[in-house]
Amino acid sequence: MLGWFSEAFEPAFMQRALLAGLVAAAATAVVGTWVVLRGLAFLGDALAHGVLPGLALAVLWGFSPTVGALAAALFMSGALTLVGRRTTIRDDSGIGLLFVGMLALGVIIVSRSDSFASDVTTLLFGELLGVTAGDLRGQALAAALVVVASVALYRPFLALAFNRDKAATLGMHPVLAHLALLVLVAASIIASFQAIGTMLVFGLLIGPPATAGLLVRRVPRIMATAVLLGALAVVAGLTISFHQGTAAGATIAGLAVAQFFVVLVGQELARGVSRLVARRA
Fold first, then answer.
1. Which of 22, 73, 212, 233 has the fewest C-beta atoms under 10 angstroms from its C-beta?
2. Does a structural domain hold residue 211?
3. Rounded to an integer, what distance in angstroms lies between the CA atom of residue 94 and that of residue 255?
4. 52-60 mean pLDDT
């Protein structure tokens, strides 16, 4: 079994893919914990797709995808805040409008490319096995900023996650904290899209933190457990992809989601056994 794993990571491109996947798992797990605690999964999905226009322009005009994704993410975050504060429509409706609009705009822009099909596939599903050393450096910097900012803003995020009014009373500035969280979610997506694409990054953003929430209760433990679960999904996903020829990003995202249901079913079975034993006793 050990040889099966070690064989998968002998090639240099697989080692780079492993590092990129682990960095993506760390960044998304930390921010994803707040997304799960606040019930902002749909918002996270919208942001993941909201960076598409910036990425598409980068592909079309030949500048850095990271710069394009950052510009689009900042625009999306600002637009979400504006819609939420200046209109009377429900938050989920505003998110849905921006989600579809940004996704459509991204596809329209990239459709101008001569290699439309391959470009769309790369943007949506990533190119983990093609990660370069330069990509890794940029990704690691973005992930480090996300983790440091998440730690620095721990108290405002914690107060906002459990009671917005209480956060305001404590002087935690919930509006600014919410905007900061949107920026960090966008940054974690930017740190991960090269590895698994904008479509599948949502699996790492939500899957490991949601699974960790089934296992532990304290926020720091949820974050730490989510990082470990994300790393496990990356290692197992890349190994399966190498040996079975499956898409690397999709395999990782699928395992990140599957972990939740494995833990959930395991806990339900354990409860059932406990009730059965209690009845017989």
1. 22
2. yes
3. 31
4. 80
